[in-house]
Specification:
4 helices; about 50% strand; eight-stranded antiparallel β-barrel; Lipocalin; globular; about 150 residues
């Protein structure tokens, strides 16, 4: 009986040390698919008053089909999608991306008309949804939070 108990205890101890490989890393989720913006909402707080704006609804249709591709080599492609706003613009632009060590912050450096760096909190990242949030002070008394939602395809 003592041997069975020790064997059971050893099995439980070894089993509890086993690494759980079922949950994909955020990097794997990012590079698995392309990502198209499906929502962009800003919330401004000034002097106790809150104003929310649906930025995505105001985007021209030619911007709503743009998408991002995160590559394993940390390169980032921003693609104009099927509908380009201008025929003189390139179809795709490249940049870079990275996640911090605990994979809670995404930094992207997109090269377009000017250099643009985005540092965002990763609010949600699943096989189908990427939600990013930025918070900035616009003026001394205005704080803007912007939440971007992307859908994988």
């Amino acid at each position: 009986m003592k041997t069975c108990y020790l064997l059971l205890l050893a099995t439980v101890a070894l089993g509890s040390c086993k690494k759980d490989d079922s949950a994909p890393l955020r990097t794997e989720l990012l590079i698995a698919k392309s990502w198209r913006m499906s929502a962009d909402v800003t919330t401004d707080v000034a002097s106790g008053k809150t104003t929310t704006t649906d930025v995505y609804a105001r985007l021209p249709t030619c911007k709503q089909d743009d998408f991002l591709v995160f590559n394993a080599d940390n390169s980032l492609i921003t693609d104009e999608g099927l509908t380009k706003c201008s025929t003189t613009l390139p179809q795709a632009l490249t940049g870079t991306w990275s996640l911090n060590d605990d994979q809670t912050k995404l930094t992207s450096h997109a090269v377009s008309y000017s250099s643009f760096i985005l540092l965002a909190d990763v609010v949600e990242l699943s096989p189908t949804t990427l939600r990013l949030r930025t918070t900035t002070s616009i003026y001394p008394d205005i704080t803007r939070t912007e939440e971007f939602t992307y859908t994988a395809f």
